[in-house]
């Protein structure tokens, strides 16, 4: 039986919704893949994981978003076909699948919020990460090779133009200084040349290594080459920003999907046949 006038309106709106729905699926897929594939994000998350025992939640939320994005294409198929054929059966499947995807995305948002609460970077960065910085070998000046922690922390120090967790003095008395007494601080604590390797910089990558080292040795000396702030706040702000993106996208798309459920119910009510 043909749909009523109101159902015809719902049918049209359902098509428009599904177009937006497909775009939201692309957004979910893109953000999820970006968080899992971007090398700089992966390295910075490794820094965060040093200070946090629960280090898999960000990856888990990203995977949930990717799965949700992929599921949107299947859900959209049932929505389009159900609207075209005015089939209550297909629309019923569409509604069920949409509710499932919506539930998964809400779970992703809640998980991200829980992860944010458990992360407690402000307290843990000054304990675990500071301890790691003090005790890790970081760099071997003889071989010119970086320890895994040194590689990832170089990324953080370059990304946020910082040195140490709370400042360059974090390296005082560290294993790094004991093993490299002539260096005192990693090269990544200094301004690097354009195009230099942020992950494994060498002395030749530093704009002015001699001046940077002098600025470290002389506390009262104006800091022009040495990164004078610690990485603590930069890492906290970065991690929170990524979590806000995940929370906003997951909950925003879930709200959009709720509108799709309402439209599908509206269309079903206007179709005279039983499910």
UniProtKB/TrEMBL annotation:
Localization, UniProt: Membrane
Keyword Membrane tagged: yes
Topology with respect to the bilayer: Multi-pass membrane protein
Coiled coil: none
Transmembrane segments: 12-37, 60-84, 91-115, 243-268
Keyword terms of this UniProt record: Membrane, Transmembrane, Transmembrane helix
One Gene Ontology CC term in the entry: plasma membrane
InterPro entries to which the protein is assigned, alphabetical: Tetraspanin/Peripherin, Tetraspanin_animals, Tetraspanin_CS, Tetraspanin_EC2_sf
Highest taxon of the lineage: Eukaryota
Similarity comment: family membership: Belongs to the tetraspanin (TM4SF) family.
Protein name: Tetraspanin
């Amino acid at each position: 039986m043909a749909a009523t006038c109101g159902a015809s309106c719902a049918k049209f709106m359902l098509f428009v919704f599904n177009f937006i729905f497909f775009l939201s699926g692309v957004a979910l897929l893109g953000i999820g893949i970006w968080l899992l594939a971007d090398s700089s994000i992966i390295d910075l998350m490794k820094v965060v994981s040093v200070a946090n025992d629960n280090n898999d939640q960000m990856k888990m939320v990203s995977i949930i978003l990717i799965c949700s994005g992929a599921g949107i294409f299947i859900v959209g198929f049932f929505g389009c076909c159900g609207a075209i054929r005015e089939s209550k059966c297909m629309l019923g499947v569409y509604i069920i699948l949409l509710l499932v995807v919506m539930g998964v995305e809400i779970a992703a948002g809640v998980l991200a919020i829980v992860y944010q609460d458990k992360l407690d970077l402000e307290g843990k960065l000054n304990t675990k990460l500071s301890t790691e910085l003090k005790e890790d070998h970081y760099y071997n000046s003889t071989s010119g090779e970086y320890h895994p922690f040194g590689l990832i922390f170089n990324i953080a120090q370059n990304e946020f133009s910082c040195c140490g967790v709370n400042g360059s003095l974090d390296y005082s008395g560290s294993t790094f200084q004991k093993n490299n007494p002539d260096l005192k601080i990693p090269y990544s604590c200094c301004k690097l040349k354009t195009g230099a390797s942020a992950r494994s910089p060498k002395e030749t990558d530093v704009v002015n290594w001699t001046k940077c080292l002098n600025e470290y040795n002389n506390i009262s000396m104006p800091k022009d080459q040495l990164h004078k702030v610690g990485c603590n706040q930069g890492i906290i702000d970065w991690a929170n920003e990524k979590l806000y993106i995940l929370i906003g996208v997951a909950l925003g798309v879930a709200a959009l999907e709720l509108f799709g459920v309402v439209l599908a119910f509206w269309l079903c009510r206007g179709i005279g046949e039983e499910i």
